[in-house]
Design a protein that fits this description.
elongated, Conserved hypothetical protein from pyrococcus furiosus pfu- 392566-001, ParB domain, 305 residues, 13 helices, alpha/beta, single chain, 12% strand, 50% helix, six-stranded mixed sheet
């Protein structure tokens, strides 16, 4: 390792990422990470020796934001070191910190401070995803895709995922539900034309054409989240009225209780749960799924697998 000077240790990283990068052994599915040196310190590495991370979950970096970071690095230096893994002699691969790495190039730096870790490909992916979720200004859709990749590619269970990112299951489910939206609405969320609040309201519209119509109206008229929620509620109420027009209506109090239970089930499973009950308290519960992985997610919540 050429001309590397150990620097003083910094504080541990974020909650989930810290558990992955901690020098002491951790109880998890991933193998223990082995520091590149006995001291597990920070070293200065030439930028020319570092290769970008092929598992980087973020594909777009705002040029203006990078330039601002570069100007800050010129004045303050790099406050938080990047993290790399050693590939060979004078060859390293980024685990986390690509924004700092790219901004350092713009700032004209030749060397950057770095933690050196040993990690396999799955650990690389897991650490890159968690680092981005915790440290970058990701939009809601990018977070949703990162959560999905952690579940599928890193084979994490929902409870493990929640522990890694410091979120409860309901919050994780709310993000994952965004991936069920039509591509046009997902693009709008990605490009910040709508917020996560808008998207969560639109999820509750079952008809795709009506979803897109409300989305278009939201963007064109710059509707607030509350306005979109009111539109969706009105649409769903009208649908419910048509369905029950030829059937005896439930007692208002009972109807309210059924609706509250349905909302709680939908929040718990992260899906559009349908709960139907008649005046004799007979009915059914439907939990739709969109793929095998979605079915496995629901079965996991039910503790069937």
């Amino acid at each position: 390792m050429a001309d590397k000077k150990p620097l003083p240790k910094k504080n541990a990283l974020g909650r989930g990422l810290g558990a992955l990068l901690e020098d002491s052994p951790q109880k998890s599915k991933s193998q223990d990470l082995i520091p590149a040196s006995p001291s597990a310190g920070i070293y200065e590495i030439s930028l020319d020796e570092i290769f970008v991370n092929p598992y980087q979950p973020r594909t777009h970096f705002d040029k203006d934001a990078l330039q601002e970071l570069a100007e800050s690095i010129k004045v303050q230096g790099i406050i938080q070191p990047i993290t790399v893994r050693k590939l060979g002699d004078k060859e390293y691969q980024l685990i986390s910190g690509e924004r700092r790495f790219q901004a350092s190039k713009i700032a004209g730096l030749e060397r950057v401070p770095a933690y050196i870790r040993t990690a396999n490909d799955q650990q690389m992916l897991e650490m890159a995803l968690i680092e981005n979720i915790q440290r970058e200004n990701l939009n809601a859709l990018e977070i949703a895709h990162s959560y999905q990749r952690l579940l599928t590619e890193c084979e994490l269970k929902q409870e493990e995922l929640g522990d890694r990112v410091g979120k409860n299951r309901t919050t994780v489910n709310n993000y994952l539900r965004l991936l069920k939206l039509p591509p046009d609405i997902q693009a709008g969320l990605r490009d910040n034309r709508i917020s996560m609040g808008h998207a969560r309201a639109l999820i509750n519209v079952e008809d795709v054409d009506k979803q897109l119509a409300i989305y278009k109206k939201t963007v064109e008229e710059e509707l607030s989240v509350r306005a979109v929620e009111a539109l969706v509620k009105s649409l769903n109420d009208n649908k419910a009225d048509k369905v029950s027009a030829d059937k005896p209506d439930l007692d208002p109090v009972r109807k309210y209780e059924i609706n509250k239970i349905q909302q709680r089930l939908a929040s718990h499973f992260g899906s559009r749960v349908q709960l139907k009950a008649d005046a004799k308290n007979k009915g059914e519960i439907k939990i739709p799924f969109t793929s095998t992985s979605d079915l496995n997610r629901i079965l996991e919540i039910l503790e069937i697998i």
